Amino acid sequence: MDVNGKHKRSKAMWKHNRITAKLGIEVPIIQAPMAGGHTTPQLIAAVSNSGGLGSLGAGYLSAEQITRTIAAIRELTDRPFAVNLFLPEPYALEESQLRAAHHLLAPARRTLGLTEPRPVTSYAEPFEEQFAAVLEAGVPVFSCTFGTPTPDMMTRLRQAGSVVIGTATSVREAVALEQCGVDLIVGQGSEAGGHRGTFLHRAEDALIGTMALIPQLADACSLPIIAAGGIMDGRGIAAALLLGAEAVQIGTAFLTSLESGTHSAYKQALLKASADQTTLTRAFSGKAARGLQNDFIRTLAPHESVLPPYPVQNALTRDIRQAAAQQNNPHYMSLWAGQGVGLSQHAPAAELMRTWIEQVSALLDK
Ligand SMILES: Cc1cc2nc3c(=O)[nH]c(=O)nc-3n(C[C@H](O)[C@H](O)[C@H](O)COP(=O)(O)O)c2cc1C
To answer: Are the C-beta atoms of residues 255 and 284 closer than 8 Å to each other?
Structure first.
């Protein structure tokens, strides 16, 4: 074997592992699924066409929207991509919680000029219909959060030929996912933007940072681990790989990409934000999530314990979030963001990918 050949082979070592092989991708970088219109077909295709894995956050989409969006993605790429759903969770709702929520949300509605709360006909899209649309489309990768897929779901996903990714925020959750037969596990550290995937603990008890979580998951699981939370560039990617992850899942850093569907006022807020501005809140959805602090979160903070659970609170605040978006008022929008937000860059997704790949190569291909 000649010296140059040997050198070349050792150079791209970080790109070749169990995850890139399983997913059929070139670089172990996954663009996080982000429900709420951020993950456009253009963003997903840009990441997949750059050698990573683009993901559609389909949690809030109807079955018909899922079918249409997957077709649009397939127009733009023939590479693998993922579709992500929120697994449904049982919840108990008391009439008094609904009354309290309407009372607490009234000032926000008045500020935005909304007279009456919009009648809510269902709190979430029917999961079975969403799941059937994903199966019908035969997606390369299915990812999920908020629990473990049921045995029936696993059987149907296997029949559809999809690789299955679950989300854990603790070792106990990762072990539960491994036992139910998923292929890969996202370890979501507490730095992460958006909702906590926690399902076996109170969210407050599973706020384990990425640096502590990933090596413990890598030791406890035989499945490969995908690190998520606070990763914004090549330094974070290289660090996650050194901690024992075999891929990273990046959310916040893609929100300010050119192709993301993120509202322009939200993008501006991210580009100006610093790490000390994020907080965990249940105010918007009833479930703990990390985002930029604003008036809505501050006002509801003392009352979080009386708010209805997810997905009820999420449905109740929808008209507020939509009116805020129409009025370019970031103080009533859910500005989900991770603690790495201060490193956000406004650039095309392919350029972000290219830069990060070069950075990781410079750090690891020594
Ligand atoms: C705006 C936003 C929406 C998100 N929506 C989802 C989602 O629909 N499904 C999911 O599994 N994770 C979702 N997440 C969490 C990401 O998958 C991931 O864990 C997180 O973005 C990683 O942390 P980072 O934002 O610091 O990169 C979301 C994150 C953000 C910022």
So the answer is: no
Distance between Cα 159 and ligand 1 center (Å): 27
Which segments within 141-246 are labelled E, that is strand?
141-145, 163-168, 184-188, 194-195, 225-228
List the one residue out of 284, 306, 317 whose CA is nearest residue 117.
317
3-state SS class at 74: helix
Q: Among 173, 195, 217, which is best to mutate for testing ligand 1, by the most ligand atoms less than 8 A from CB?
A: 195
Q: Which amino acid is at 276?
A: D
Answer yes or no: is the C-beta of 57 below 6 A from any ligand 1 atom.
Answer: yes
Q: What pLDDT shows up at residue 11?
A: 67
Ligand 1 neighbourhood includes 56 CB (under 6 angstroms): no
| Spans of the chain below 70 pLDDT | 1-11
Q: What is the pLDDT of residues 48-102, one digit of tens each?
A: 999 999 999 999 999 999 999 999 999 999 999 999 999 999 999 999 999 999 9
Determine which residue's CA is closest to atom 7 belonging to ligand 1: 34
The contacts of residue 182 (CB under 8 Å, 6+ apart) are 148, 149, 154, 164, 165, 166, 223
Beta pairing, strands 29-31 & 81-86: unpaired
